[in-house]
Amino acid sequence: MKLGFRDGVLSAADDARESEMPERSWFQKAAVARDAAIRPQAVPYPLVLLSHGTGGSAAGLEWLARRLVDRRFAALGVSHHGNTGIEPYRAEGFACLWERAPDLSYMLDHCDDWLSDLSGHIDTNSVFAAGFSAGAYSVMLLLGAVAQFSQFEPSRLKPGGARGPREFPDLADHIPALLRTSDVFRDSWSRMSKYYRDDRIKAALICAPGRSVLGFSEKSLKAVDAPALILVGDADRAAPAEECSSWLHARLRRSALKIFGGGLGHYIFVPEGTALGLAFAAELFTDPPGIERAAVHEEIADLSAALFQNVDKAAMA
């Protein structure tokens, strides 16, 4: 059973009553037990911070949060302002991806504000992170990667190439005007190459990192010392495995790379779809014949939990 708190999940007591989440969604979601007592545990649960893909929301990683809870973790996700589907899109939120990393650090800096009666049940000294696509970029910043340039800044565009992500296809066309007219945007742009490393993050799951990671300084990547597990599908067209994940893996000292076979695409890392989701965006929820997305999600959860548990055991040894 799962206990909802903010955008997080934690194990609920066995006698808790679950109920379906009533809102309309593109994503299949498990039942939750709201305001339930927490399942007793001899030691507090390690915490995993979650960062969604560009234009998504914390709900897009509910499938991972739920499975990590089953493996004795607590999970907490944020929806990144300006870059989330729960509010109107903003060009600033899509262009300035480095602003996402502090969202996650903020949750640790202000944990007393949201822990409340969960205090003693969550171990904020044992913290990990997981991110998908742009969320993978966010998590790499927390590990110590430093951005040299932004993927869609006009000077970096290739003739005939993409001018923005799927969710904001003309993003590059907004950047010059924002640099001219917005003090807030210019201030954020000046923070592009800031050091966002958060030493509280012990290890990370990096799911389908996109071309934005090619903007990281190779020197900064070689200095990352936290373990990272990089996962990607072999048929990912949005973030091709060799161009993005393999490139990143080759520049990290303590990373492992797994490329899922079977024709898996970028969106294997989002939840299974509802009828509504299939009606509006079938490409997000359609996998090759013979692929069960839930089974892939179980494997991902096993791999990530094993990484986090091994790092915790090494720290206690």
List keywords for this structure.
317 residues; alpha/beta; Rossmann fold; nine-stranded mixed sheet; 34% helix; 16% strand; globular; disordered N terminus
Q: How would you explain this protein's 3D organization?
A:
With 317 residues, this protein is α/β, with parallel strands linked by helices. It has one domain: Alpha/Beta hydrolase fold, catalytic domain (Rossmann fold), CATH 3.40.50.1820. The chain is 34% helix and 16% strand. The protein is built from eleven helices and nine strands. The protein has a nine-stranded mixed β-sheet, with helices on both faces. Helix 1 packs across helix 11 and helix 6 packs across helix 7. The longest helix is centred in the C-terminal third of the chain and has 24 residues. It is globular, with a radius of gyration of 19 Å. 46% of the residues are buried.
Characterize the main sheet.
9 strands, mixed
Structural class by sheet pairing and helices: alpha/beta
Which percent range fits the helix content? Answer: 25-40%
What string, H for helix and E for strand, traces the elements in order?
A: EEEEHEHHHEHHHEHEHEHH
Q: CATH homologous superfamily?
A: Alpha/Beta hydrolase fold, catalytic domain
| CATH topology annotation | Rossmann fold
What is the approximate shape? globular
CATH class: Alpha Beta
